[in-house]
Amino acid sequence: MAEDDDAKIRILQSLRGKICEAKNLGSVSGPNRQRDLCTFCTISLDQEEVFRTKVFDKSVCPFYGEDFYFEIPRPFQCLSFYVYAKSVFQRDLPVGKVSIRKDDLCKYSGKENWFSLQTVDPNSEVQVISRKADDSQMIIECKELPLISGQNCDPYATVSLVGPARSDQKKTKVKKKTSNPHFEETFFFEVTRSYSRRTQFNVEEEDIEKLEIKVDLWNNENLAQDVFLGETRVPVKILQSDHIHKAWYLLQPKGNGNKSKSDDLGSLRLKLTYIEDTVLPSACYTPLCTLLLKSPDVKPISASAAHILGDICRERYEVILPMVRLLLHNNRFVPFVSAVAALELDNTQEANTIFRGNSLATRCIDDMMKIVGKNYLSVTLKPVIDEICESNKTCEIDPIKLKEGDNVEVNKENLQGYVQKVFSSITQSSSNCPPLMCDVFRSLRHLACKRFPGDPHVQYSAVSSFVFLRFFAVAVLSPHSFQLRSHHPDPEISRTLTLISKTIQTLGSWGSLSKKLSSFKETYMYDFFKSFQEEKCIEKVKKFLDEISSNVSKESSGLEDAVVLKEGEVQKRAQGRKPPGMKTFKKRWLRLTNRELSYHKHKGKDADRTINVKNIRAVEKVDESAFNRKNMFQVVHSEKPLYVQAGNCVEASEWLEVLSQVSRCNEGRLATFHPSNYTSGAWQCCQSLSSNAPGCKPCTTTMLANLQLDIDCDREAERIFSLLSANDTKLQSMEDACASLAVYQGPQREPEEYSKFTIQEPKETFHTLKQLRNIMEELQRQHNSRNDVRQYGSLDNPIVGKTS
């Protein structure tokens, strides 16, 4: 039973951050200078590129401003950021890199840091190597070798016994098209010890200490020079004749990672947050989830576990998201956020400041809108945002910022046209607003009217402060942060989006403010807003706010808009038979909406083939051995399986996830699948002869999530546990404050830190704190009992460099 539980333990990794800017970039190798070239950045897990910024115009101090987030689907040892100079006629030239060991990521988590760029050495470290060895023979196995020109490499190894006055080298055979080669070859090296009876050479005992087994990994290039993949060394002294040494090693640069001095190549400013969660079986989190989900029913709400969590971690933004996701999945979000909003309103003295602070209520609603309203934003804003970014019309109306030759009247006309399109898209979108968002807005409206019954505008400001100020206006300002655009926009387009966002905020507030144009500080904005018909705009805003927050259920048009869930370039295996010599894999643009999966020769072209998502019966990984390619997956539908190769492990994981989620409720989903392909009259995985034979491996179970959201409740509970553990001292301070308030009666002088907590009922709050404390201690015991420490020399924790 314990083994079964251990099998359910998951190590989940994610990386969030921002590539901010570079400073004083140095020259690149070659005839061109850096100032003459455009630059871009990439992110690599070990040597596998998983993210790339857009190309930035000529500058030695480029501002990239690119946010990134991705789940890390495999073990890795090193996270690297490369700066490249874009070249038109030759390969992109490396300027420098920042490499951070996985174990060091925690030092930089959650903070912005400047990193000096290091020289990009073509003989830099790669991945991992395993060996089983004794003093006479060695068996080598490799994992996750890098792709060469997008293909699996043809690796071979050279094995040397090196030491004073000797260097014996042997070579393995080349393994074709694989990133996980296993070299089952035996090599013998004669080592004569001084204490041996049979002595052929006079080798002193101290020489044994200096002997090493060195293994170099190479990619066979046939006609070109072989590519060095990395090396590792093992001292002979650890290879005893009475046992086998078996361990994984991280491949190192030549010379075992000795760094040479490099020129000043500049620096890169990065913000990183790496999270690794050890997720236990579901039963371990039941007490914590039960206590958190009871929060909406606790009186007062400030004594609930969810409110306490937000109270002690108020300085950490990431604490709210797992709690919101947990509440959403269990249909407990609306009653909880209504209770905390009511508490905030009790402490609000003026109607015009309603929900303007960064409180627990506003942060919860912000996160909810980003999760639940993702498709709503895409349907409403993406078409017009794409038009703004691609047409690139000048919209500057500030006289101080006008460039030579700009016509302010033309710019004003361009800006007004864009604002009208965005404003119309928003105010006509009420039928697409998610029901849960409508439920929250309706509750906020009711609570605001109850708190300020004499103010006719507060019913609108309670809703517009979220849907306009914190949702639509923010998405217009930063479309890349809401997946409306793939990259941060250019400075000129960013300025246009800033002006549009500012205008939308103001138009959205017109329905709830008594002062309109007189509130503008800038003269040019005052003049610009005179062009809008104020009363008509107010009427449209109020109508929209009424529709998304009223008790009247919205009528559906009956036709759901197609929402693009994911798209990108992939390698697709040709369907059907092709004449000899033709490529079986070709580049295609893969596009998934909530209705269909299609592939195209190029982005924007007509679809070559379309598959209705309702016809998808399974989405699974494909063994690398099937096509000698990594990052392969298959879409099994009513006809032949569609075989696709993603660009990297992150892309493959994301495609698998989104395809599985969109098709998880389909009728006729398969229980089994074939992890390999059907060729030469048989399935290569199980050798079944019939192409219609049932699969030989169980299909991956896709968890059903509420609201069509991908929410892993166990992972969210583990995140909450980790955050509570990290704030244990604050929990203790809150317990002390409750004890003090409960024991002593009458006014008292509390320590300054006590005033940071919201404690209405000390006894009830103290009771909840003790429950949390007991649950945390039990969870910690569960973690400790499962031996989470990974063995040094394992695949997840390989040996770096030499070992003693």
From TrEMBL:
Molecular function terms, GO-annotated: GTPase activator activity; zinc ion binding
Annotated keywords: GTPase activation, Metal-binding, Repeat, Zinc, Zinc-finger
Name used for this protein in its record: Ras GTPase-activating protein 2
Family matches, as InterPro entries: C2_dom, C2_domain_sf, PH-like_dom_sf, PH_domain, Ras_GTPase, RasGAP_CS, RasGAP_dom, Rho_GTPase_activation_prot
Record-linked PANTHER family: RAS GTPASE-ACTIVATING PROTEIN 2, RAS GTPASE-ACTIVATING PROTEINS
Species: Pundamilia nyererei
Record Gene3D superfamilies: C2 domain, GTPase Activation - p120gap, domain 1, Pleckstrin-homology domain (PH domain)/Phosphotyrosine-binding domain (PTB)
Residue span(s) of domain PH: 563-664
UniProt region (Disordered), positions on chain: 782-804
UniProt domain C2: residue ranges: 1-115, 116-249
GO annotation (BP), single: intracellular signal transduction
Segments forming domain Ras-GAP: 315-509
Keyword match Zinc: yes
